[in-house]
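job 3f2a | input accepted
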Amino acid sequence: MSLHILIDMNLSPDWTSLLRASGFSATHWSTVVRPGASDRQIMDWAVANGCVVLTHDLDFGTILALTHRSGPSVVQLRGQDVLPDRMGNLVVAALAQHETELESGALIVVEEAKNRVRILPI
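job 3f2a | predicted structure (122 res):
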């Protein structure tokens, strides 16, 4: 799999090992540069480095919608428990199923019951 996943600060660093074990390249934002960076800075870094952002933060989808940006792709987790042991299989399945859309530009919302895909720009 060719997707590189940038894991947002609001998610556990444990996502990194789960995604890597599933065949993805993954980096937690805390290991990049600035833990206190704004969402826009994270998005700009993700675009510059060819990453898909994995987040629990609704602001990324809002920024994509308001700016009509075509990237980066964002995978947004929805639910009370967004730890890897609870949602890991759902995320890995969504990444594999929607790899083509994510490579082209998409917002994917992953919930326990379903996934929603929006092609960028929105």
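job 3f2a | The chain has a mean pLDDT of 94.
job 3f2a | closed
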